Amino acid sequence: MNRRQFLKNAAGSVAVLSAPWIVPASALGKDGNIAPSNRINMGCIGLGGQGTYNMRAFMNKPEVQIIALCDVNKGSDDYDMLYQFKGSTTAGLARAKEMVEEYYASNSESGKFQGVHAYTDFRELLQRPDIDAVTVCTPDHWHGLISIAAAKAGKDIYCEKPLTNTVIEGRIVANTVKRYQRILQTGSHERSNHTVAYACELIYNGRIGKLHTIEVNMPLDSNQTLPPQPVMPVPPGLDYDFWLGPMPWVPYTRKRVHFWWRYILEYGGGEMTDRGAHILDIAQKGNQADDTGPVEFWGEGETPRDGLFNTFIKYKFTCTYANGVKIIGSSNTPRGLKFIGTDGWIFIHIHGGRLEANPASLLREVIEPGEIHLTRSPGHHQDFLNSIRTRLQPMAPAEVGHRTASICHLLNIAMLTGRKLTWDPVKEQITNDPAANRLLIHPMRSPWQLEPGLI
Predict the structure, then answer these.
(1) Which of 18, 200, 249, 455 is least surrounded, with the fewest CB atoms within 10 Å of its CB?
(2) What is the pairing mode between strands 117-119 and 344-349?
């Protein structure tokens, strides 16, 4: 007997009990409430700044019940950038658990709630059969392994962008999600912006003429240079060896972990995979190339000369698609991208999606009933939940996330090698440079490994 049947039978038996048993309307799904048997049980893996943000976004959805949390940091004050709770300077597992339990307590009749389980190993969380979906908001070098394990465990997945930290991991994630018939939403939330959808409708319906160039601006707005850092003791509560996971062991220093890992190539890809995963994702969408990618990559960039960080801080690059459309990018401002056609252009500002156009009258255009119309998202998190219910693809499924992340990684590889690369988007191989082709995957530290049969 499931929970819904139990509640219905219990409600029908009230009259024969010696004392009345009043079942709250919320338990039966009445008065606009969602019955517990119809809620999506969720576990959240990775509880730093973005992980906590996503956790709170789902926590506020009435159809979601967060029942499990996981982070290798039980809780410490060594987060340089975090989502504050009550002005606290700490973050991690313990703080996230407190947030969730306090929220559910405030919405319960008793004013108390203790139903969230905490884990430091994601594999223990994934073993729970009562979890329907998970968020994966760890550093990038963990995205692939956890998403693969989650799909195999039968969980739907909301994975932060970039989908993975290497091209080959991304292909394995996309294939695994498809094989196990899971829903995966990549956290490329700009796809859910209504103004982005409108801009793409204008492009698809020929309002700027024939698209030929996409100019991309990806400036840096934080200091991504850092002098050599001292070796430090690992703070209490942090399982640093597990944080490193598949990457080589190196001594702990504070700015290797949490927010700052994204500027170290072993764990992230710098601005290219950070905001670049948003901007280049919209370039893919605007060029109607979600299931493919450019066929040629060129780039040159500058990295810090010394210190802990080693991702590119100044760059320019060009990508060329088989249809002749070029992406021309740089670290210039303002952040966003311009779609240039034979009859005009549209610029999308990232973040927020504000539009500019030439001629300005483009932004007053009406998309007629017989033209191409794009679905409007109810919001990126809600779109994921809707897809869990309907089993229809979300705004940024695994294949889309993989193709966008591949562009980011290939541009970093082009800049690392200093060579123009030709790319086969069907075989997903660099065809003119065997040494560069080997950079499509990072070696993994034992016991972590990928299954080649999933490629």
Answers:
(1) 18
(2) unpaired
